[in-house]
Records
---
Amino acid sequence: MISLTRHLLERPRFQAGQAGELSVLMTHIARCGKLIARDLNRAGLLGTLGAAGTTNVHGEQVQKLDERANQTFVDVLEESDTVRVVISEEMETPWAVTRAQASGTYAVFLDPLDGSSNVDVNAPLGSIFSVHRMDASGNFMKRGREQVIGGYLLYGPGTILVYACGDGVHQFTLDPAVGEFFLSGSGMRIPPRGKVCSVNTGNRSKWDERMKNAVESFQTDDPGTGPPYAARYSGCLAADVHRILWKGGLYLYPGEVKKPAGKLRLMYEAAPLSFVVEQAGGLGSAGDERILSIQPAAPHQCVPLIIGSCEDVERVERCLKP
Ligand code: AFP
């Protein structure tokens, strides 16, 4: 059994730099996962389910647990003394960490509780994170490919932590009795082609014709492309992408005719998950451009997302070509 602590100690890139700062940061992200998992486990008993009565920067209803997960990240990352700024779906403006101002060198982008419409029905939830190193001028708005770490926590039947840091993808499972994450998967490779397509087809009427045809091609029995793909959609991006990481397939959240950038957020949803998926041999695409090549213009900007097995993503890209 290899604990997360032991795993980080054995990785030179986590020990490099001032006092193994990256290793300390990763350990604190894992601590957020433990605390949020605990809060989710007890939410039905403590009255913390349901809406908070506010809306976030994207105009979405905030759940009480969204606020709690966000506060957990802010408090724990502040205490880590490694982070200078936190950019979260739940905070309109980037939050500068005062305590670590002098020493922290990292910016952390967060979706603290991904899939929050699942909160009240005990369905899977996640936390998605992306770590960037700030440069001397304090810039943290960098392309996805410049991430230092991309990853997610997934709160399902078990709590898992998946991250990529330039040497493949590693997965840890929380042993709740011990309070430690232990390695449960390393060097994952996404099959080049899958059997599952995850997309909210309720939005079909809002897509352009090319996207409608692309998705339909995965639902059709065709001698050229094979049998239709099975439909799977959980309402939690981290959960749907995690299935693809292990089994292959495709997840799409397309842009819409009236909203070409779609719904998902570049910096704390599309980019970290593309970073993980690409290090496992898959692809993350916006249709006409790789997600990891996009230069961000704003912290909360949205982007269409097509992510998963290489051949499946490329097949959609071909369908979208003018
Ligand atoms: P949040 O709970 O962080 O807003 O994330 C939800 C989400 O961005 C993603 O996890 C889902 O795949 C997607 O939205 C679901 O959206 P629809 O309900 O529109 O299909």
Note: Helices lie at 4-9, 12-15, 21-46, 64-80, 209-218, 237-247, 266-279, 310-320.
---
Amino acid sequence: MDHQENNERALHLLQTVFGYPAFRGQQAEIVGHVSGGGDALVLMPTGGGKSLCYQIPALVRDGVGVVVSPLIALMQDQVDALAEVGVRAAFLNSTQTYEEASRIERQVRMGEIDLVYVAPERLMTERCLNLFQASKIALFAIDEAHCVSQWGHDFRPEYIKLSVLHEQFPNVPRIALTATADPQTRAEIIHRLQLGDAMQFVSSFDRPNIRYQIVEKANGRKQLLDFITTEHGGDCGIVYCLSRKKVEETAEFLNENGVRAMAYHAGMDHAKRAANQAKFLREENIVMCATIAFGMGIDKPNVRFVCHLDLPKSIEGYYQETGRAGRDGEPSSAWMAYGLQDVVLQRRMIDESEADETFKRVLGNKLDAMLGLCETLSCRRVRLLDYFGEASGPCGNCDTCLIPPVSFDGTVPVQKLLSAVYRVDQRFAAGHVIEVLRGVETDRIKTWHHDSLSVFGIGADRSEQEWRAILRQVIALGLVTVDHEQYSSLKLTDAARPVLKGGQKVQLRQYQKPVKQKSPSRASKGYVESDLSPREQAIFDKLRWWRVETARAHDVAAYIIFNDATLREIAKARPTTLSDLRGISGVGEKKLASYGDEIVAMISEME
Ligand code: ADP
Ligand code: ZN
């Protein structure tokens, strides 16, 4: 087939099988390149639409498409979703019986299957490699390709061995895909998978439908509850916490307060963890409280919010975690509460880690970038994208764009704070220093005669919260460090000197009392609040109920039937014939045949 024909066939498959009118972003180019037999490296953010980049070429080309994926738990859902649109898909992994696997292997050999998912350790077996040698292979797709990176947190040793594909199947195109953006990981993928000659497709990493918000932590759990109930009542979401204990406590707290929540962390037994994950993927109106162990491959498209109750270690981590919100492109939130304690804790974790000095410095730099994002006076998205080397302008859909923070000349209060640290001989922790500044006569202050210091009470005009906010920024700016060897005492750095001496000014972000914030106008870019009329809303709700029941009857996740965007469009268009329904994005031929009559009847009934 020539190039032109391939492209026409690809578009036809997109429309009839998947029911989408057009390719998105770079999909068309990628599909064209791989369908024509080329190797590709695809870097696209979560929700960008990576799956179609290998699924369609696998259908265009002769033979079976082999998808290497580290996520055994999700293979069933992937195969279910393909079956729903009428694509013949299967998987080979350790959860199957020998008979089941043999049956799939036979189908692969006979070319009776379009796509087969395999775990990397399975692929590396003699048996599997022989099977693929004896079969016609359309392509190899290597999903989550960043798993080859030894420095990343998803490292899988078996991924490194995937270079054999290049050696054993030199004529089969390979496409590697990942949502990890940094240049180091990219270089490692190319090197390890021998993709030096592959065409690289790098998409913008912006996720315009995600609204970023970072608030000052006062009572984190309470703030979280307010955020969920005021902005995301009834939605699915993920809440990340640092420790297992906090995960459990947060889930319990949410449940006590009427938000359905579950827990997920590496300390739970395997069966319970797997059950909670499956439940989260299948059900609506549920919140998962988790450590970062819950992550890769959370393919649920309608996660409406991702919250952080603790500061992530790096912007890479933060971006990957928040990226799990809104894969379907609908308005979603990334919300974080952060406070002084977070900064202190993360610094301590670095100091106390076993890593060598160079590595500690790398960790420290990553943390500094993360703090910079938290304390920024300008657009969060600009900061985030800049970190990944992408230039952009103010987004209009983050907290600093929507409610610009007030900054002020903080030189004088910072000088007061630095002097107080110095006057107590750099031997006391934050709480004590703030008490000295505010002139609180505690026993400890009297014991040490700190009430006779010149700095005692010079900061009485500010609340404790305000002083904590200032101290946090002073630490973020690197003027003060926390010494964990010595009771978390505050120490001045060399950078503090010019400020203390009065040569250097310091601009600070104004502390804003955590008020119960009504959500800012959602009319801005990327954020279209439900634009359904009451009548359309009623249809939408009915469709959602129908979807829950249908999904249960078919034993698949609800989003596999239709996603929210498709249901919303149906509610608006109110199709009363099958041909009207066919025109809607997300309705392919197979789904039209399976559900068309039911939907049309349901809508006619409501007219
Ligand atoms: P990724 O793997 O990059 O995170 P997915 O492949 O899961 O993204 O796609 C994310 C969502 O976007 C899915 O719900 C998918 O059906 C949808 N999608 C992908 N490509 C298109 C397209 N061309 N038109 C409409 N929707 C699309
Ligand atoms: Zn912004």
Note: Residues 20, 23-24, 27, 44, 46-52, 299, 301, 327-328, 563, 585 surround adenosine-5'-diphosphate (ligand 1) (CB under 6 Å).
